[in-house]
Each structure stands twice: as C-alpha cells, then as structure tokens.
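Continued from yesterday's entry.
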Amino acid sequence: MNSPSSSSPTALRTTGQQLRRRSWAEPWKIKMVEPIKLTTAEQRTAAMRAAGYNTFLLRSEDVYIDLLTDSGTSAMSDWQWAGLMLGDEAYAGSKNYYHLEEAVSRHYGYKHLIPTHQGRGAEHILSQIMIRPGDTVPGNMYFTTTRFHQEHAGATFVDVVIDEGHDPASPHPFKGNVDLAKLERVLTTAKHVPYACLAATVNMAGGQPVSMANAHAVHELCARHSVPVMMDATRAVENAWFIKCREPGYAEKTCAEILREFCSYTDGCTMSGKKDALVNIGGWLSLNDDALAEKARNLVVVFEGLHTYGGMAGRDMEAMARGIEESVQDDHMRARVGQVEYLGELLLAAGVPIVAPIGGHAIYLDARRFYPDMPQDNFPAQTLASELYLDAGVRAMERGIVSAGRDAKTGQNHHPKLELVRLTIPRRVYTQAHMDVVAESVEAVFQQTKKPRGLRMVYEPEYLRFFQARFEPI
C-alpha cells in the first residue's frame, strides 16, 4: 500500500540514487470479519427498481461495498467492545455518563454535556432553545438536517462559506472557511442572529476543512456583535488533522492539541458521535453558557431521555467515551484520511472528476462533469449513484438537487452549484482492495459511451426527501 499524500506517515528511503516513499499500514489488525457478497447484474437491476432508484431504499444485504455514509458504520475496537460489557444501565446517574462527560471535557473543552440519541437530536434541542421565528442563522454551507431544524424553528439559513467552497475544482486548502465579509453583512443587517453555525469539516462542500485562523477570526467577529458560535463538530477531529497537515505552525502539534484549540473558538457544539467518535449510535450537545445548558437539560428530558443518558444506553456512552480517546490519536487519523486519499488519487489518475482537494471522510464525484448535457432537474447525482450500484454493487449517496430540497417559503427546488455523489468511507471497515474495486467501478461508469438521460421523481416525502424519495428512469 503506497503512501497516498503528504499527510501520510511516510519518510523517504534512499535506494542507490533513487528516492521513494516507504509503505505504510493501518495501525490495527483485523480480529473479526463480516461476509459480504457480490450480486449479479440482474439482481442489482431488480433491487434498484424495487428501491425506486434511491440508494437509501436498498436493502443492505444487496450491497457489496457500502459507501452510503460513515455515520454509525465504522468498526469499533476491542477496547470499545470491552467497554460495552461495563455498561451501567441505571436510569439515572450512570457511571458511563460521567466517563463520557470527562472525555468530552478533556478533548473538546466544553463546560456542559447534554447527551442525545444522535446528532440531529442535538440539533433539535439547540434550535428549540436558541431560535425564534424570524431569526437568521449564518453558516458555512448548509447541512440537510441542521438546516431543517433551524428552518423548522422559524429561522432563515444564510450561506456564508467562501466562494471557493462552491467550486469543485478550486485548490483552496480550506474551502470550508467562512467569508468574513459575508458573515459581517448578516450580523449587521439581520433582525436577530441567535448564533453563527460553523461546520468543521463542511460535508456538502466535499468534506472540506476550516482553518484555525478562520475559526479564530469568526469567533472574534461574532463576539463583537455578541453572537455565539456553535459548531457542528461531527468531523472536527478530521478538521484538526487537515490543520496539522496544511496550516503553517501546526505540523508539530498533535491532533488532540489542535482540536482543543479549535473548539476554544466556539461557544458550544452539536455532535454526532457516529462519525469521529467511532460508535454506532449516540451524540451530544455541548455548551459553555450555564443558562443555555439548563434550558437544554430541561428540554432533553422531553424529547430524548434523562439528562444523564439522552437516548443512549450506558454501554453506548462507554463505547463513545473510549471512541473519543481513540479518535484523537494521530496514527488513527493518519490512516483514516490516508485511505480516503488513496481512493481519491486512484480516481484522479484515471481522469475522473472529483472535488479537490480531497476531503476527510469521502470522495465526492462531480456529477455535472459525468453528465455535462443532463439538466439539473433530471437529477444527475441521483442518476450517477444509481449507475454505480448497477455496475458493481457499490452504494453511494446523492448530494445535489435532491438533498438540497425545496425553499421553505416558495416551495421551489433549491438548485445548488454543487451536484455531487459522495463515496463515504467508514472508519476501519474496508481494505485498500475494496478501494481498488470502487475506483474501477467509478472509472467504468465515467467511461460509459451510452449515457443515461436522468431520472424523474415519482414520490416526494414532505421532509428531507433524499431519504425516501422514489424515482424512475427517463
């Protein structure tokens, strides 16, 4: 396995007059396996039809390599599995809650912890305690569930990401950065801004990071306007790794040190522990403000569970506390991002159009460049995700016009600049051989001489349509 990039754990080895990178390997070995099977083309066609050409509606047993999401799909370590046996399932005051509280405090630095069943539970609680109808929430590009909860509480979301974030070909190393001029316009013109939303990394931009300098500047600007900064910390550890690799002055710092500093420029966070924290379920809301934390604890018992479990079993909280400890280790992050880079560089070498620079948790295929003649209303990214499954049983996720949804006021489709398909790599699950298979499948679809005409939507649910919408080929 060759080193994927400059962020990989490699040194140069001298052989005669030649220099070459040393190979590297994951900092773990496989102890248990789960069988998967490759279906036939006929079986995949039947499964895709039954799923209404929506990869979310496929049965997992019909999927060969599942890159739908990294949410709750990572492999836990033996230390985490051992922690499951130490679950304190007391209804109130579980010792595992205090283990989780201590881990979050040590590595993220926030004062208060309110556990939730997963990240969107935290988004809901935060929106309910901070947003009032007519508010405006600025953020560095929307995320589906985050924007829904903000709008459902009565706010209007305003995108303040830098312009490079909407350009899949831009080489900017921190395409998740907030445009400070855009943010200041919102802060000075909006009737009321309850908080600024800072996502790290930015999922919809291709897993792109935010620089430390930008996070610091955002916090200073918002402080001048007495507006708190709330972070979507779902992949903040990956963001810290990119700061270590790309931002001057941080190469010698550990991922854990960088994460703690980054969080210090925010006033709270929502967290899906199903990503960075390496567990199958769980999340949390963290806050520094005592009064807000009290409101959150009062509300969490209505929607999630008691304030010392928030919808999680004790064993889940213990696994998450241990997962946090593992997630901030440099060796883990080096291998995690390295595998994503490995797949990305295979695709770049084959001439496949992807979002660059390569992000942290996924490779994003540029569906517009796959199908340059397809109108966006024919759902290019949804079409591409379907074609990948039909080719080799690889399940991916649409991140384009379907995910963007409709304007809450006008009912018209949002037409995002980015029309992407996300190949999301679960942590510690697949080998490089699996990545080779994925790369070959993507290349085969890209080189198809007979291009599909797209899809039409035949069923649209009321909320978050990308989860359950159904389509048919045009």
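--- second protein ---
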Amino acid sequence: MPGIRELLAVVLGAALGVAFLAAPRTMLRMSVFVGPTRRRRGDYGTDEAISARWTWVARGLGVVSLAIAAFITYQTYA
C-alpha cells in the first residue's frame, strides 16, 4: 500500500525534473554545483555566464530525476 513517503518522492522528483528542464540556468545559479556566491565581486548583474556544457548537465539531471520519479510511480502505483 503506497504511503506518504512514496507520494512525496514522486512529487519532489517530478518538480525538480521539470524545474531543471524548464530553467536550467536558473537552477544552476541557485545550486551548489556552479560555486559559492561569496567569491563573486562586482556590480549587480555582472555574474559570469554559465557555459552550455553545464546547462546540458542540468538538463540531464532533470531527465534522470523525472525517470526516477516515473520508476517510483510505476513500482508503487501499478
């Protein structure tokens, strides 16, 4: 019988997956993968651009997250 843990895992996995696919650059800026924000210097809005490779890595994480959420959904609710 499915419980609240399985439901939360599916919802969180799907939400993270969609967020990483919809806005990968924003998710990378908010994450710890790009680097700490304390080393940033300069004026507001002068952040370095995020490379295309990191963007594709973020999209890959989104796909993996959605796949795991789908697997948990299939195992629990099928």
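The two ends are 11 Å apart (CA to CA). The mean pLDDT is 85. Will compare against the first tomorrow.
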